[in-house]
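Q: I have 130 residues here and want to know how they pack in 3D. Can you give me a structure?
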Amino acid sequence: MNIGNNIKKMRKALNMEQSELAVKLNVSNKTISSWECGRTEPKMDMIEAMSIIFGIKKSELLEDDFTPYERFENGADFEKAWKDLGGGRHPIDLTDEEYSLLIDYRASGEADKEAVKRLLAYASKMREQK
């Protein structure tokens, strides 16, 4: 189990900065970083508080194969979660197709992400040549 990775995945899925989560939990940014890097683990009261903030079950934060991206079926669900968290940095407006692509990208492995980056860089270069 790596609760730190799960905290980071859920925080990023909700487009939340470490500092925003730290404020909501009344802890320092260093504490959030320490959890996410696996140097320390949060106590049960913090796990409970994060489950409320993230809108998930405590057990989900403890799962080995936790995939927060599956929690949002479309942009409207993401918007609702964002509003339920009290706002914060607002995600850019996305079409459902763009949102779906973003979720797929976030859930992909590093090799796939690098391939997408290379493809986009190539497409950008081709546009500049026109």
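Q: Anything worth noting?
A: The CA atoms of residues 41 and 95 lie 37 Å apart. The mean pLDDT is 80.
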